[in-house]
Specification:
Number of strands: 14
Structural class: alpha+beta
CATH superfamily of one domain: Thiolase/Chalcone synthase
Helix content: 25-40%
Shape: globular
Radius of gyration: 19 Å
CATH class of one domain: Alpha Beta
Distance between the termini: 34 Å
Number of helices: 12
């Protein structure tokens, strides 16, 4: 069992800009089925598993794998423009992507240079699987509240094409077993895209959306259930779902004991994984499914960019005063829940 929630509350932080950059090329699950036809026949598995089990009908890819950084740069520029914040005002820029070309230097330095941020902007990567973007926002909000910076930019650019191709190559090799196939099934739900958010002081931006705070909780005894790199992602699907649900339910219940009131939010914006993931959390927390926007059917799982992309797409349907709960689980396992007042 995990050892309880970490709780954080923000006093003067607002979300000022939130944007998405859509990767240009759609790749359908039917295309994957076509490439896997011989394997599926050999293993006596049906076609359409990605669609029927995961609810993923398509995902997006860049023209070239390394364009994930260009996506993060474009998202950052767009978010700054939307927020009306000058690049020279940014005191912190955090890149939160899982995807990276190399171990050094950080992805952040290239994004910092590409956006044209000033020398005063601290820049580095935060890597925490699919929770990276939420973690980056929490760090930025804490630094704004502490008076260390005034404005922060959080970005994520993801590429899934190399994982997809490596996975398809293994799944079509002679002699693959049914168990091996199912252990890599989740890799084919991954997609590419980018997102960015600008945070700043709420008292200077009454038009902003207040970030009130939230909780995190760790269950790192499950750190071997989902392990991935550019060559593939290997997942104990049943173990990951069981461990993740145990973690989320424990965090959810303790958060309410600690004074959060999240049972009647206007929206629950989740990290986007699959039908199974969303339906399990919806049932366990007794949530209204009509208040849960989803993007995984057409975008797949875009890693840490998934949640902000989904919130960005939902923004036009929100009105001042709406209460939003951002909910995520990342491989490892960790969970986070953050409340935003629109």
């Amino acid at each position: 069992m995990a050892n309880g929630n970490a709780t954080f509350r923000h006093s003067n932080v607002a979300l000022l800009g939130l944007t998405e950059i859509l990767a240009p090329n759609e790749v359908t699950s039917q295309e994957f089925d076509d490439r896997l036809a011989d394997t599926l026949s050999m293993l006596n598995l049906p076609t359409g598993l990605l669609q029927r089990v995961a609810g993923v009908y398509a995902r997006r890819n860049w023209d070239q794998p390394n364009q994930f950084a260009d996506g993060a740069i474009a998202a950052g520029k767009k978010a700054l423009a939307e927020a009306g914040v000058s690049p020279d005002s940014i005191g912190l820029m955090v890149n939160t992507s899982v995807t990276r070309e190399h171990l050094e230097p950080s992805v952040a330095v290239g994004v910092h240079a590409g956006i044209g941020l000033g020398s005063q902007a601290m820049n580095f990567d935060i890597a925490n699987a699919c929770l990276g973007f939420v973690n980056g926002m929490t760090l930025a909000a804490n630094m704004i509240d502490a008076g260390q910076i005034e404005y922060a930019l959080v970005v994520a650019g993801e590429d899934a094409s190399r994982v997809q191709e490596a996975t398809l190559a293994r799944l079509t090799r002679p002699g693959i077993s049914r168990e091996e196939y199912l252990n890599e099934f989740a890799s084919l739900t991954l997609g590419s895209g980018a997102s960015a958010a600008v945070l700043g002081p709420a008292d200077k931006h009454p038009e902003g959306h207040r970030i009130l705070g939230g909780i995190t909780r760790a269950a790192t005894q499950h750190h071997e259930l989902c392990v991935g790199d550019h060559n593939g992602m290997f997942t104990d699907t049943k173990g990951l779902l069981a461990g993740g649900m145990e973690l989320v339910v424990a965090a959810w219940e303790e958060a309410h004991e600690d004074g959060w009131n999240w049972r009647e939010m206007d929206r629950y914006v989740m990290h986007q994984v699959s039908d199974v993931h969303v339906n399990s959390i919806t049932k366990a927390a007794n949530l209204d499914p009509d208040r849960i926007p989803v993007t995984y059917p057409e975008l797949g799982n875009v890693g840490p960019a998934s949640l902000p992309i989904t919130l960005s797409r939902e923004a036009s349907h929100l009105k001042p005063g709406d209460r939003i709960l951002c909910m995520g689980v990342g491989s490892g396992l960790n969970t986070a829940m953050t409340e935003i007042e629109w």
